[in-house]
Amino acid sequence: MEQHTCPICGRAFPVVPRRATFPFCSPRCKMVDLGNWLDGAYRIPAQDDELFSENTGDGRTDQDGHDSSGG
Ligand SMILES: [Zn+2]
What we know:
Bound molecules: zinc ion
Number of strands: 2
Strand order of the largest sheet: 1-2
Radius of gyration: 21 Å
Low-confidence stretches: none
Mean pLDDT: 79
Strand content: 5-15%
Distance between the termini: 43 Å
Shape: rod-shaped
Order of helices and strands: EEH
Helix content: 10-25%
Largest sheet: 2 strands, antiparallel
């Protein structure tokens, strides 16, 4: 039986064709991975955008309803 190593917890588990949690060993590890990439995907790296920020005055309004609270 083929075995796969869980990328989250590193546990070796038998590969099941219809396993919904593949390539993770358990739904828990799948959720952990999902949370990891979600946390990184929606997090924009801090950069100096002032150089690219110009007031063109084209009447465009950038709505930024970003409200970070807690963590
Ligand atoms: Zn795992």
